[in-house]
Amino acid sequence: MLRSLLSLLSGSLFGVGLLLSGMTDTTKVQGWLDLFGAWDPTLAFVMGGALIPMAIAWRLTRNRHPLAGGTFPAPPTAELDRRLIIGSVLFGFGWALAGLCPGPALASLSFGGWQGVTFVAAMLLGMLVAPKLRLVLDQTAAKS
Amino acid sequence: MPTEWIMGLAGGLIIGCAGAVYLLGVGRIMGASGIIGGLVDGSGRDTAGDRLFFLAGVIGAPLLLWLALGSRPETQASDAPLVLIAAGLLVGIGTRLANGCTSGHGVCGISRLSPRGIVATLIYIGAGVLAMTLLRNIWGVI
Questions:
Q1: Domain extents for chain B?
Q2: What whole-number distance in Å separates Cα of residue A85 and Cα of residue B56?
Q3: Contact A66 B25 (CB under 8 A)
């Protein structure tokens, strides 16, 4: 019950924050990536704002447990594999093409029209086939 | 300072609070691609409840805000189906291969100085700038 409520609260804050920040407007995101054209720095303010509560939250995890029980995530690793690099390049291309990443695509689903629904449907399909591509990548890595 | 920057900062603070609630509350990293991807490929079956409630909030809260304010927010997304499909596939595949997107690697990763999060963010922004420069400023197709 507590887990569900906290998850719902977090998701609601996330959706409202994305909408208020302007990140559901694809032109603002594409403007951020249009560094050599009509550059729009709004995304830097959004990211900067988001990092403050989050950095405090990570500090608060020390010697504590999550409110709803369980454990906190393991410390970050420095392992940079090809999946991380190839995946991030593909994500960057898609991000530029439509001006949408997973969070804003979901937050704008109710008002984004057929365009938003089409993007999300394709994104879900991509997520469905990704584990198979992951296997292929790992196998070719093992051979080389 | 332009209103858009102030709204960006305010919205960003709320996004950061969302990540803080998810971390301190349920003990998990708030990454949109991971939360939804784990439901799609079945890898997150054990935590399906957390994920579904989170997604209900992400989709439902902006809907309620839209209804309360009365004016439909603009996404200004492309009208070309092929562009939307290609972009969606790239974002879906890319974020799941890389294990994170703007929220997981960006907001949650950078804030704890995760090397993977910082590298991923630099790469997807770099790739996005490259794509935007080619597609808009050189070829003029989007």
A1: 77-142
A2: 31
A3: yes
